């Protein structure tokens, strides 16, 4: 193998390593939730909203949730699940407690989700539920839903194609340089 051919193989391997490293970093997914009482149907004027991010490589999950016009004092609030999503309604309080949220508004914090919990979250089976003294089962609630489509990770075949293209382009450049010499 000639020396510049050797160099091309090294360049190709470098591209593969970089692409794999990029892939392992995962992606940041964004979620939103809209909270109200329409599923519980007790007429509370309370509403709320939340934004969330999930890092699929680390499981790092951040939340920022606020509410207004609750009919009585907040007792506690949770992210519950997994339960099947029923249109815009959730069976508020259903499933287990995934995250115990701090009281008050806004609720800003982070926790780490297991790989299984990440899949359940992405599937839309988690919801925010705010319990109050009058409506202890649920004052307001809303499903946590994925925003848009995640940026696709580079597939392994994509990495192979990128490496081959790089080697091919490199070969053309070397041949032209040699022809010009
Ligand atoms: Cu709860």
Task: Provide a brief overview of the structure.
With 181 residues, this protein is of the alpha+beta class. The protein has helices at residues 3-24, 115-122, 156-180; strands at residues 28-35, 47-55, 60-68, 74-81, 96-101, 107-112, 127-132, 140-146.
What does this structure look like?
The chain is of the alpha+beta class. It has two domains: 3-24 and 154-180; 28-146, Immunoglobulin-like (Sandwich), CATH 2.60.40. Helices cover 30% and strands 33% of the residues. It has three helices and eight strands; from the N terminus they run H-E-E-E-E-E-E-H-E-E-H. The chain has helices at 3-24, 115-122, 156-180, and strands spanning 28-35, 47-55, 60-68, 74-81, 96-101, 107-112, 127-132, 140-146. It has an eight-stranded antiparallel β-sheet, covered by helices on one side. Strand 2 (47-55) and strand 3 form a beta hairpin. Helix 1 packs antiparallel against helix 3. The longest helix is centred in the last third of the chain and has 25 residues, at 156-180. The mean pLDDT is 85.
């Amino acid at each position: 193998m000639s020396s510049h051919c050797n160099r091309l193989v090294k360049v190709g391997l470098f591209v593969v390593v970089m692409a794999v490293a990029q892939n392992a970093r995962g992606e940041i997914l964004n979620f939103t939730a809209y909270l109200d009482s329409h599923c519980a149907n007790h007429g509370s004027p309370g509403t709320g909203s939340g934004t969330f991010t999930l890092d699929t490589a680390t499981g790092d999950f951040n939340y920022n949730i606020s509410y207004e016009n609750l009919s009585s004092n907040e007792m506690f609030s949770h992210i519950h699940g997994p339960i099947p999503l029923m249109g815009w309604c959730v069976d508020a309080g259903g499933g287990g407690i995934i995250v115990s949220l701090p009281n008050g508004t806004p609720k800003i914090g982070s926790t780490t989700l297991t790989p299984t919990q990440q899949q359940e979250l992405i599937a839309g089976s988690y919801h925010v539920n705010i319990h109050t003294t009058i409506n202890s089962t649920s004052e307001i609630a809303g499903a946590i839903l994925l925003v848009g489509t995640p940026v696709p990770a580079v597939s392994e075949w994509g990495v192979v194609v990128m490496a081959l293209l790089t080697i091919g382009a490199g070969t053309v450049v070397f041949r032209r340089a040699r022809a010009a010499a």
